[in-house]
TrEMBL record, chain B:
One protein family per Pfam: ABC_tran
NCBIfam families: oligo_HPY
Family matches, as CDD domains: ABC_NikE_OppD_transporters
InterPro entries: AAA+_ATPase, ABC_transporter-like_ATP-bd, ABC_transporter-like_CS, Oligopep_ABC_C, P-loop_NTPase
Gene3D superfamilies: P-loop containing nucleotide triphosphate hydrolases (3.40.50.300)
Protein name: ABC transporter ATP-binding protein
PANTHER family documented for this protein: MALTOSE ABC TRANSPORTER, ATP-BINDING PROTEIN (PTHR43067:SF3), OLIGOPEPTIDE/DIPEPTIDE ABC TRANSPORTER, ATPASE SUBUNIT (PTHR43067)
Domain ABC transporter, residue spans: 3-250
A single MF term (Gene Ontology): ATP binding
UniProtKB/TrEMBL annotation, chain C:
Name used for this protein in its record: ABC transporter permease
Any coiled-coil regions, as ranges: none
Chain ranges passing through the membrane: 38-59, 101-124, 136-155, 161-180, 218-242, 268-292
Entry's localization field: Cell membrane
A Pfam match: BPD_transp_1
Length: 331, 316, 303
């Protein structure tokens, strides 16, 4: 058990180190001067201020020190929780800016992933029952997974938001309100949340439904299903076993799909101008604010790693096969 | 008479047409009889085993009847078969190693199956433990997951589970082929013991291993290309077979108790005919050294001496 | 399964001995031309591919040129209407299809080469090499591809479709490596591979002559999935504004539609075609893949 967790932890730690290293390398080894390129769009009228920023960033990169010192200094800053200072919102620390956006992204991502997983699994299991149903669910599922997240977001924003005019299509809450704990503000939050959530939910649904359908068909053809059928067990019992056994690979699928759904969340946010990490990335790109960009990257990677680890542990707890193997069961 | 199969025809449906896997099979199985069902792979023996309990989706019942303890067995009607399954007819499948749900504890799976078949698990719990002990398993296996058991242990669990409701007929389909020789013996002996204790009334033991079946079975039935060629007591089939196919099959075996240095083993030349458009008449005639003009008619299965049936014009 | 042995046997006896490979091919064809999923998927993909290849030859201006009246809905002259700058959306769409197929083939190709190589070597060699490659695969697998790509391409001042393809390939190979590895692992223990190994053949030759051909159908399907995946990732990158500089692609069309408020101007003809194009291509590829799976995998063939 601990060996398995230790192994997983090691891979995640390694991934983190590699991600940090990529993050450190990119501005240094890509062609061009990162500081000049970064400040080229900074709208600072005062040349003195610009010079100050220039000095600050050159200092942060530490171009005058040897590479390995730059690398160690980079890690040092990181471990102190220092992701640098933003260019577009100079002199705000990058970490603060990111932390402001994270709740919005999580509010979209977590419900969208979890609900689409649950509903998708149900639909997939249901589809495996009937030929007719299967022939509709399967193509629809594939078309949904083939859909770029931002496109469905655009379609929903246009149809439900603009044409039907029932839901707002931009921002995290109404621009006339200020964040506060009031019914008015919360209801504004919710109405602004519905469309981005819905579009992510729908796209993600397809993949889960297809995965579940394939897994359950496989399970229904498994030897234990045949055996139970030969012994006259009702299909209710067999389906229950198949569903449960098909769920297990779907949990692993959750980890595998995490990156895709996350990308989807970022793209969806951009369409709805939803104030999460996706919109932050777009702003950072437009302002060439590489510190915000790289900080976000690290933040996302850490988030994904933590989520992966949680999924691993859940899997161990849920699947008796791994659980037994890892607690060193007899025989 | 436990089982009476009369002119049973079961075909496989494929895109190319019907495969005549069982083409007019007639035999009886007496109370307490263990019948070995032998033949090359593809001869229809597994199909016959399946037909007695559950046709899979590609199999189609074309004709013939099955009676068990005087009652009709409606194999073409999947729903009507359900009450018979497990209670009257049970199966130890070829894939016994993987027949248990990997994510359920064995005891729980058995209980869920029993409940689904209208049996209260508590009524049978003691018997279940006794039988597990009989086959040499600690009743504690009920609290284990299948992954914690060895292949032989799983095999024995399935044996106990399949026979728990004392069925009239047990179909044991190639149950020993995945096991090593010593385990094969133990399994075969347990099955005989089950019959002796009347856990099962009679048994069809499907195998391609004639030497094993010779030691445990009362009778042996040999099939070839969807037909029955010969049925007789185990010793008769091995020592005095009459049908040319059985003779060649037996002579292809290493002789029991001898080594093989004198005279090398010979297979039967040729391959069995395809069953998509099977030849008319005797299906063995193309490989048969004794074939003559009459063989283009199908030879009937006749009782050439008491308890010894053969389908060949030369033996009639 | 074993009991069906009678079926193929018949064909052998009836139509004289044919070489097995040939027989297998004809059997696959037999099922292929009867599989609606395969035929429909392939039909749509090929139609769009042809449109992308031939279409641009009928357009005599640069797709990004301001050629017509601004913000026109679809009409006889401009089939898909025009943008708010007067660009011909049909022209952009046709060129966009072309670059979408290009990025799919290129990104998918790079990922395929890396993924299969890593998978084969890991699965065949085993031991410490397998451990290391497996770890590498796991590392790249957990990294969210799009986010890595955003950071990596953000520093590039000039981006071309080939650079994009390479970057996408570098981040999207891991699942293919995993899948190929597990297949290769099971194949590498087969007798004929053992025989080849005993006879002293080089690893690379064994992989290419003994193992790969025996999973060719599997490889084809992996490539198709990687192809579709690359298209989607590229569309995402383009949409964020990290697409090929001064290029045309379906993703870039979506980006400019978004950037220039087509949504609020009600110019649906600007953002519907590119997204529909991507969805249709990738969706058809997926359905084509299901069809292929049914054709190659006898278990899935239905009666």
């Amino acid at each position: 058990m601990w060996r398995y967790i230790g192994r997983k932890l090691f891979v995640y730690l390694l991934t983190f180190v590699i991600a940090v290293t990529i993050n450190w390398m990119i501005p240094r080894f890509m062609p061009g001067d990162p500081v000049r390129s970064m400040l080229s769009r900074a709208s600072v009228g005062n040349p003195e201020a610009l010079q100050r920023m220039n000095d600050y960033y050159t200092g942060v990169f530490g171009f005058d020190t040897p590479l390995h010192e730059q690398y160690l200094a980079f890690w040092g800053g990181l471990l102190r929780g220092d992701l640098g200072v933003s260019v577009m919102l100079y002199p705000q620390p990058v970490l603060d800016i990111i932390l402001r956006s994270v709740p919005y992204t999580l509010a979209l991502l977590l419900p969208a992933i979890i609900l689409s997983w649950i509903v998708g699994n149900r639909i997939g299991a249901f589809a495996a029952r009937k030929k007719l149903l299967d022939n509709t669910v399967l193509p629809v599922g594939y078309v949904l997974t083939a859909m770029p997240y931002m496109w469905l977001a655009l379609l929903l924003a246009w149809s439900l938001g603009i044409v039907a005019g029932v839901l707002p299509t931009s921002g995290g809450y109404s621009p006339t309100l200020r964040p506060e704990f009031s019914w008015l503000f919360i209801s504004s939050l919710i109405t602004h949340w519905i469309l981005p959530f819905l579009s992510m939910f729908i796209v993600a649904l397809g993949g889960w439904a297809i995965g579940m359908r394939n897994m359950i068909i496989y399970e229904l053809e498994a030897d234990y299903s045949n055996y139970l059928q030969a012994l006259g067990a009702p299909s209710r019992l067999i389906r229950r076993y198949a569903f449960r056994n098909a769920m297990l690979p779907q949990i692993t699928g959750l980890a595998v799909q995490l990156g895709t759904v996350l990308s989807g969340a970022l793209l969806t946010e951009i369409v709805f101008n939803y104030p999460g990490l996706g919109t932050l990335i777009l702003q950072a790109l437009n302002n060439r604010d590489f510190f915000v960009l790289q900080g976000t990257f690290l933040f996302v990677v850490v988030g994904v790693l933590i989520a992966n680890f949680i999924i691993d542990i859940v899997y161990v707890l849920v699947d008796p096969r791994t659980r037994v193997q890892m607690t060193g069961g007899a025989a | 008479m436990t089982l009476r199969v009369n002119d049973l025809k079961v075909y496989y449906q494929t895109l190319r047409g019907d495969v005549h896997a069982l083409d007019g099979v007639t035999f009886d199985l007496a109370d307490g009889e263990i019948m070995g069902l032998a033949g090359e792979s593809g001869c229809g023996k597994t199909t016959l085993g399946k037909s007695l309990i559950r046709l899979d989706t590609r199999m189609r019942h074309v004709g013939g009847t099955i009676e068990l303890d005087g009652k009709d067995v409606p194999i073409a009607d999947d729903k009507a078969m359900v009450p018979l399954r497990y209670h009257e007819i049970s199966l130890i499948p070829q894939y016994a190693m993987s027949a248990l749900n990997p994510t359920r504890k064995i005891g729980r799976m058995i209980n869920e199956l029993l409940r689904a078949r209208g049996v209260r698990p508590v009524d049978i719990a003691d018997e279940l433990r006794r039988r597990l002990e009989l086959v040499g398993l600690d009743p504690d296996v009920l609290n284990r997951f299948p992954i914690e058991l060895s292949g032989g242990m799983k095999q024995r669990v399935v044996m106990v589970m399949s026979t728990l409701l004392n069925p009239s007929l047990l179909i044991a389909d190639e149950v020993t082929s995945a096991l090593d020789v010593s385990t094969q013996r133990a399994v075969a002996e347990s099955l005989v013991e089950f019959r002796d204790r009347e856990y099962v009334k009679s048994m069809v033991f499907v195998t391609h291993d004639i030497s094993l079946v010779y030691q445990m079975a009362d009778t042996i039935m040999v099939m070839y290309a969807g037909h029955i060629v010969e049925k007789a007591s185990a010793s008769t089939i091995v020592n005095a077979p009459r049908h040319p196919y059985t003779q060649m099959l037996i002579s292809a075996l290493p002789e029991v108790g001898t080594t093989t240095d004198q005279g090398r083993l010979e297979g039967i030349p040729g391959t069995p005919p395809g069953l998509l458009n099977p030849p008319t008449g005797c299906r063995f005639k193309d490989r048969c050294p004794l074939a003559f003009s009459k063989c283009s008619e199908r030879p009937p299965l006749v009782e050439i001496e008491p308890g010894h049936w053969a389908a060949c014009w030369k033996t009639g | 399964m074993s009991e069906i042995a009678g079926a193929p046997g018949t064909a052998d006896a009836a139509d004289a001995p044919e070489p097995t490979a040939e027989r297998k091919t004809s059997e696959v064809l037999h099922f292929a031309v009867r599989n609606p999923k395969l035929l429909i998927g392939l039909g749509i993909v090929l139609t769009l591919l042809l449109t992308g290849i031939i279409g641009p030859f009928f357009i005599d201006h640069d797709p990004n040129e301001y050629v017509g009246p601004q913000s026109q809905p679809p009409n006889g002259e401009y089939w898909l209407g025009t943008t708010s700058f007067g660009q011909d959306i049909w022209a952009q769409f046709v060129y966009g299809l072309r670059s979408t197929f290009l990025i799919g083939a290129f990104g998918g190709g790079v990922a395929f080469v890396i993924g299969t190589t890593v998978g084969f070597v890991a699965g065949y060699k085993g031991g410490i090499i397998d451990e290391i490659l497996n770890m590498l695969t796991n590392v790249v697998l957990v990294l969210p591809a799009l986010v890595v790509l955003i950071v990596a391409t953000a520093y590039l001042d000039v981006r071309g479709i080939f650079v994009q393809g390479v970057f996408i390939g570098l981040t999207s190979w891991p699942w293919a490596a995993r899948a190929v590895r597990s297949q290769a692992l099971s194949l590498s223990t087969r007798d004929y591979v053992d025989l080849a190994r005993l006879s002293g053949r080089r690893t690379w030759r064994i992989i290419t002559t003994e193992i790969a051909p025996n999973m060719s159908s599997y490889l084809v399907m992996s490539f198709i999935l990687l192809f579709g995946g690359s298209i989607l990732i590229a569309a995402g990158l383009d949409f964020i504004g990290l697409g090929p500089s001064n290029g045309v692609s379906l993703g870039l069309m979506l980006e400019s539609a978004m950037k220039w408020s087509s949504l609020y101007l009600g110019m649906w003809w600007w953002f519907i075609p590119p997204g529909l194009g991507i969805t249709t291509i990738v969706g058809s590829l997926y359905i084509l893949n299901v069809g292929l799976d049914e054709v190659f995998n006898p278990k899935l063939r239905e009666l």
